[in-house]
Amino acid sequence: MTELTGPTNTTKVVVDVMLKPEILDPQGQAVSAALPRLGFNFASSVRQGKRFEIEVEGEVTVEKLAEITKAAETLLANPVIETFVVKVEN
Amino acid sequence: MSLDTVQSAQTTPDRIQPFAELGLKPEEYARIREILGRRPTSSELAMYSVMWSEHCSYKSSKVHLRQFGEKAPHSDALLVGIGENAGVVDVGQGYAVTFKIESHNHPSFVEPYQGAATGVGGIVRDILTMGARPIAVMDPLRFGPADAPDTRRVLPGVVAGIGGYGNCLGLPNIGGEIVFDETYAGNPLVNALCIGVMRHEQIKLAKASGAGNLVVLFGARTGGDGIGGVSVLASETFGADGPAKRPSVQVGDPFAEKVLIECSLEIFAEDLVVGIQDLGGAGLSCATSELASAGTGGMLVALDDVPLRDPSLSPEEILMSESQERMCAIVEPSKIARFLEICQKWDVTATVIGEVTDGNRLVITWHGEVIVEVPPRTVAHEGPVYNRPLAKPAYVDRVAREILELPLPSDSEALKEAIYKLISSPNMADKSWVTSQYDKYVQGNTIQSQPEDSGMIRIDEQTHLGVAVSTDANASWSYLNPYEGAKLALAEAARNIATAGARPLAVTNCLNFGSPEDPGVMWQFAETVRGLADGCLEMGLPVTGGNVSFYNQTGEVAILPTPIIGVLGVIQDVRARTPMSHSAGDLEIYLLGKTEQDFAGSEWAYLHHQRGGVAPTSDLKKEMRLIELLLEGQEIFEAAHDVSQGGVAVTMCEMVLRNKIGATINLVDDAAVALFSETPGRVIVVVDPRNSERLVELAKKFEIELTELGRTGGALLRINEIEIPLAELDLAYTSTFPRLFG
Q1: Distance from C-alpha of B274 to C-alpha of B214, rounded to nearest angstrom
Q2: Chain B neighbours among A 31-90 (CB < 8 Å)?
């Protein structure tokens, strides 16, 4: 399936950010506690992260990816308590 | 690794143990072996290492801190003194108030938001543990240069963390300070103070007595938060590459803490606990050993019953975990059902993890096997004590001989420019960029907060009884003369309470210093404690508790000695308090106290990159007379504002800008000295002309110099021939922080 995502030829880069597994996640805990109250009993634990979708002009080169990774380290994620994954979506 | 039990410790005496990595010295490790008569198990080693760390054991400071007890003034107000989670003072009408200040410096450097947030959470639990309802918080802060890139990372994070946690808890933040200096780059100071109130009969203590009583852990589940945080994080200097061992950061959950507060208060109200302790630094190691040590001495804990967030945690990690929002209570078996019922109502996890026993052993088991068997006192109270070498650093005499070369403006244009320069400097500029991120009025009992001299809270809505708290430190004076610096900070904090009309009652402190292994730093510390103890004795104010934070240094550079002194006072009717600024024109402005040439350690000197000369000497007898004058004359004061950093110039600017009502000031002597000198023991007061005679009488009675400065009114700050439009002054005062921090 091919679909244009914008007026120009852009590529989508996704940065997924998650709290490190040992770090307390109050939001995930709140969701986890709310599920059974609503009748959903499948979850033993929930952790919540965040996702950034970045539209990049043209092709994603190695250099651009490195720059995005740097931005993720600096702004999108807090590497002291979070981990992140950078992915190029096709 | 297999479980290290007491039995295996006896059969494998020669196993190599990582005591050095846990921060223990060889002789400390040897002493643990001597106490136990065998090698410690890995769990025991974990407990001793965190409890014998500088942060928990006060091993370098203890010999000095004793002076607070030895020189304690007699005080009828003191209900609970040093040694408990927080001191408690009697404020009258059956009310008791508890307050304490603690540091969270290192965690706030690593992760500013969470570090500052959990700092608030920790001090709030300390106050709660005394049986009190927390009613307000304050945060004295120190950062590197305002325009340094790291300050732009740390300051916004710290401020957001304090606001985020405190606002979620519904606690007003009623004051504190923000000061910038090069020495705090890489070592920001994040101190947190909390005030709580209760009735006298509601005071709770941290002790586990009565064999057969149950040990209950309640609150959040235990995870891998801040493991080794206490011993490694708070007691080791950061190297150039950041912390050597970065522990997992503690994340605070203020909503869990709010529920824990309400749950605990309901439990207290039904008198369901014998003793209680919060879990902060050193977690369960601290709570179990301190409770047992202060009680009858014996306790049996089944560690595998501790509810975990991360089931893979080892027993050593569970003992050292610093997961937030947890409490430990001692409950009689007949009351446990009701206790658990209340916890269930609040959706708070509560688990019986052990019981108080006869004898004097703290025994901890893991699935039935004994992994800890220690005399709790040796863990909690009989840790190592060091009489560390101290030596007056060479700089002290050198800087004392320095002659300050400061430009003292003489003509009107230069004076005006100097006022603008001072008022827009980061240390003097308007701090509302910070304080507006804090909820100052939640709960509806805040009478005053920043930028007033002190924070004031009403504690009884019928009688209008209230308390006021101020925190102060002048690190530049402490650098020049730590003994006088401590006394001057004490005097300033007390004065800041009295200007509003509250009577100073008690003192708390947070002593922030560099490495105690540096004899020069140790000398600064010893002189500070001596000064504070002497000052408190002279002023009749008991020290109710405090906190020491060492190792605030990067490489060889220690922070300026920064003893933050908090003074709490009581005011009978908050409606009668005196504000910092006049709200009408045609009132007379006076200066109480005498202005000398005091530029050493002043803001004017700091702006000219000079930190030398001789710090002012305190005159506490006179400070006390000034306080008595302020209290006796309270009804005639339309406004009263302390003169401190930035001198009369900054004090007057703050007064005219508060309500945007100008003033005309006439200075007869050298205007630059009159405006920028920082002689301690001065207050600017505003009175109605009808009361000026009464003021003259009061000044005579209390032997305080009185100088008429001028009159209120108009849209200008007029000083001799200088005319400063308030709108212009306001712009200079308020635009610094937005410009720096966005």
Answers
A1: 10
A2: 33, 78, 80-81
